[in-house]
Amino acid sequence: MTQLEYARKGRLTQAMRKVAADEGVDPDSLLALIASGKVVIPFNPRHISSDSGGEGRRTSRGAGGSPARGSRRGGEDRQPLGGPQRPVGIGFSLRTKVNVNIGTSADFPRLEDELKKVAVSLKYSADTIMDLSTGGDLRKIRRRILRRSPIPLGTVPVYQAAIEAIDSRRSIVKMTADDLFATIEAQAQEGVDFMTVHCGLTQKAISRLRNQGRVADIVSRGGAFHLAWMLYHDKENPLYANYDRLLDIARRYDITLSLGDGLRPGSILDATDRPQVEELLTLGELVKRAWEAGVQVMVEGPGHIPLDQIEMNVKLQKRVCNEAPFYVLGPLVTDIAPGYDHLVSAIGGAIAAAAGADFLCYVTPAEHLGLPTVDDVREGLIASRIAAHAADIVKGVKGALERDLKVSRARKKLDWGAQQKLVIDPHKFEEIRKRRRSRTKACSMCGEYCAMRIVSKFLDSHGKADDFCF
Questions:
Q1: Confidence of residue 454 (pLDDT cuts 50, 70, 90)
Q2: Which residues constitute the domain of residue 465?
Q3: Are residues 410 and 269 in the same domain?
Q4: Residue 377 pLDDT > 80, yes or no?
Q5: Same domain, 466 and 409
Q6: Taking 50 as the threshold, does the pLDDT of residue 52 lie above it?
Q7: Tens digits of per-residue pLDDT, 192-215?
């Protein structure tokens, strides 16, 4: 059974209890949100990480992860051993989550570099990781990343299916529908927790694209693979035509489907056009079918969107997709800042999340330029986490504003140790303090002229601080 099916039966799983504790919310309230589809917990019981006891852990009953016993009222559901050791809830009323994309390319197929990116993602508190590898031994890379990742791991299965078709038959279009579904099931068996699947890129959507005259056409790699296959064979998207087959696999392994936006705008000039909206309407229909099948589902969104269209895009998705969790790439609010796109993305991400988006996919400084380095991953993650937290203050997420209050109070007291424990990047905090330390208790920006030091001194003495000298 899936987390969605457990929730509908009123049964709290271990994963739900862990998420409720992490979020500081009532478990029964969380259960109701999962049952309604407004929250997902990507949780494949076959996900085994070395952080949680090594390769020896196994599920107790089958791939679907059926519980041994238990109920909502009769005690904790005894979920099988397995699944991410740090399960994550994504959706309404929960903390905005941040995903990190990593993965090799043909030019840089080095596994060890990607494992370093896993380490830095965990160090800086990523909520999920996606392996988007396209170079080297894809299975080996994915399995090693899975073992290192105690948080949910996602993939885009069409990447592997298309690349293997190129390797064996010398063309993406030689991939078969069976190849694609075999890859999806193989990755599910390995323990992947969520998958981006471009089910909404239909022949009807392609006809919209042809008539639109877009600036950037398609920038989604998965979307491009599907479009090439569909046009070559003059057939419908196999993931759309065989959606029930996909749902069957997802239900058996409790894969959370992330319905990909193959027609997301790659230029702000293409934002909210007919191809994008056509695909979104299809995704809204597919959300309902996933729920009917007991499958957890979220929806991916744009893309390159100007500031004034972001809130409208979020509200449109929520309306069309019946409040399913919304997973956005960025959004990027201008096209002119390669090298700084982590900042462009953070601007858009804060607005999107404040408007109701639930899940931010980080963007690194290397976006549009090359494969990110470990440092790029760190910068992109921190920028996205800042955006997520800023939005959580607006959303009223429990604990968000309180954290700012604690930092502000520590700052007023010039309590640098307390500040370092509370800030998003304590490592950079310490680095800058060491590099530019002041001779006084204040920082070296103001030193003895620190406003907080001066005001505190005079307020404490009721304006009679005669001994306060510069």
A1: confident
A2: 440-470
A3: no
A4: yes
A5: no
A6: no
A7: 999 999 999 999 999 999 999 999
User: Is the alpha carbon torsion for 217, 221, 223, 229 positive or negative?
Assistant: positive
Residue from 239, 212, 244 nearest 226 by CA: 239
Residues 340 and 202 in one domain: yes
* Pair 9, 108 in one domain: no
Is residue 62 a part of any domain in this protein? no
Q: pLDDT tens for residues 254-303?
A: 999 999 999 999 999 999 999 999 999 999 999 999 999 999 999 999 99
**Class of residue 420 by CB neighbours under 10 A (exposed 0-12, middle 13-18, buried 19+):** middle
> How many domains would you assign to the chain?
4
SS (H, E, C) the chain: CCHHHHHHCCCCCHHHHHHHHHHCCCHHHHHHHHHHCCEECCCCCCCCCHHHCCCCCCCCCCCCCCCCCCCCCCCCCCCCCCCCCCCCCEECCCCCEEEEEECCCCCCCCHHHHHHHHHHHHHCCCCEEEECCCCCCHHHHHHHHHHHCCCCEEECHHHHHHHHHHHHHCCHHHCCHHHHHHHHHHHHHHCCCEEEECCCCCHHHHHHHHHHCCCCCCCCHHHHHHHHHHHHHCCCCHHHHCHHHHHHHHHHHCCEEEECCCCCCCCHHHCCCHHHHHHHHHHHHHHHHHHHCCCCEEEEECCECCHHHHHHHHHHHHHHCCCCCEEEECCECCCCCCCCHHHHHHHHHHHHHHHCCCEEECCCCCCCCCCCCHHHHHHHHHHHHHHHHHHHHHHCCCCHHHHHHHHHHHHHCCCHHHHHHHCCCHHHHHHHHHHCCCCCCCCCCCHHHCHHHHHHHHHHCCCCCCCCCC
Query: Mind listing the pLDDT tens digit for each residue in 239-252?
Result: 999 999 999 999 99
- What pLDDT, in 10s, does the model give residues 330-344? 999 999 999 999 999
Q: Are residues 388 and 430 in the same domain?
A: no
Instruction: Note whether 351 and 448 are same-domain residues.
Output: no
